[in-house]
Write a structure and sequence with these properties.
heterodimer, A: mainly beta, six-stranded mixed sheet, four-stranded antiparallel sheet, 52% strand, B: 115 residues, mainly beta, three-stranded antiparallel sheet, globular
């Protein structure tokens, strides 16, 4: 069974600075997706970024980028120029490609951006 | 934009009641999912469905059942609510694999309190 580990239950960062959230996973699969989801306080969970395991290039979405290390089974999220609106729970998640589309989630990291 | 709508944002029910949580998506997605979210535990899969009248157990199906009579609607049923089912319940559907926005679209969640 796949597992996803987020080792940082809480983090904080100053506005405009850069922060990196860690995620490791365990799988015997070769083809899979990795995701970061954001859940702002009392608001809907939304997709931040997706990485296909077969792609060597790290995914980026504006201020959000990942460092995907397949051999190390590591998938960290970097947020540049942090904004107050980035305050949220962040969940790392794993999905086997071509499978049931079940997502396996980590326990989340609560990020607070301070003014 | 894809919309996943959960009928209730907050619910309070009594122990032993039969509870229905409704979820509707408007994009003709085949796959739909029910997760529960608890602090420190992340999101755990209860049930999912690939198509009308098809359902599969997730990781924590005990005490729950589901119904999918129409493609757009996926209902979670608590047969006899108990206090340990107090939680946030999240419904999601997936865009087709290969789509640029591939991933889950979540509803806003239903916070259920069983007293």
């Amino acid at each position: 069974a796949q597992t996803v580990t987020q080792s940082q239950p809480e983090m904080s960062v100053q506005e405009a600075e850069t922060v990196t959230l860690s995620c490791t996973y365990d799988t015997s699969e070769s083809n899979y997706y990795l995701f970061w989801y954001k859940q702002p306080p009392s608001r809907q969970m939304i997709l931040v970024i997706r990485q296909e395991a077969y792609k060597q290039q790290n995914a980026t979405e504006n201020r959000f980028s990942v460092n995907f290390q397949k051999a190390a089974k590591s998938f960290s999220l970097k947020i540049s120029d942090s904004q107050l609106g980035d305050t949220a729970m962040y969940f790392c998640a794993f999905m086997t490609q071509g499978g049931s589309e079940k997502l396996v989630f980590g326990k989340g990291t609560k990020l607070t951006v301070n003014p | 934009d894809v919309k996943v709508t959960q009928s209730s944002r907050y619910l309070v029910k009594r122990t032993g009641e039969k509870v229905f949580l409704e979820c509707v998506q408007d994009m003709d997605h085949e796959n739909m999912f029910w997760y529960r979210q608890d602090p420190g535990l992340g999101l755990r899969l209860i049930y999912f469905s690939y198509d009308v009248k098809m359902k599969e157990k997730g990781d924590i199906p005990e005490g729950y059942s589901v119904s999918r009579e129409k493609k757009e609607r996926f209902s979670l049923i608590l047969e006899s609510a108990s206090t340990n089912q107090t939680s946030m319940y999240l419904c999601a559907s997936t865009t087709p694999e290969g789509a640029p926005s591939y991933g889950y679209t979540f509803g806003s969640g239903t916070r259920l309190t069983v007293v």
